[in-house]
Task: structure prediction
Amino acid sequence: MLGVVFTEFMEMVETEFSFDTADEILELSGIGGDRGFTAVQDYDHNDMVRLVAALHKVTGLEIDTLIMTFGSHLFSRFRVTHAQFFDGATGSLEFLENIEEYIHVEVKKLYPNAELPTFRCIRHAPDRLEMNYSSTRPFGDLAHGLIRGCGDHFGESLNIIRNDQDGPMKVQFLITREAAV
Result:
């Protein structure tokens, strides 16, 4: 899993909770606070699972809520760190449709070893998109949070109906753009 995901997760923990919480979850997870993370290194996705479980233990917040919150945070950070991906995007559904064919192609250029999930999209109407997420990792909640973050970024209210098809590894999202917020 890309190191940038880990560095952004730890930044979110430090910002939303505290530096002490970040240190505590590193210790509780067994990952250790001395190592830290770098954006360009790859890490085992199970380390992220352990970090989220530790954050759940420390905060008492539900794991799915924590991961979705992180997804929204991550989307807002991508807007800053990869502004070029947003050039020409006119709305959330249009942006989401381009993840597989444009954004993931560009990500692979930056990180050739990245193991990315797939997003297959079907446009049912101008304001309705079916998005099918598939991954070898259990992060459907992260995808859900990224979709929410996308709607927030574009100032659009999105109704998201989620159908888990293989736990959090294969998820169908039925997204309806309801109105500008």
The two ends are 34 Å apart (CA to CA). DSSP finds seven helices and four strands in the chain. The domain at 70-180 is CATH 3.90.1520.10 (H-NOX domain).
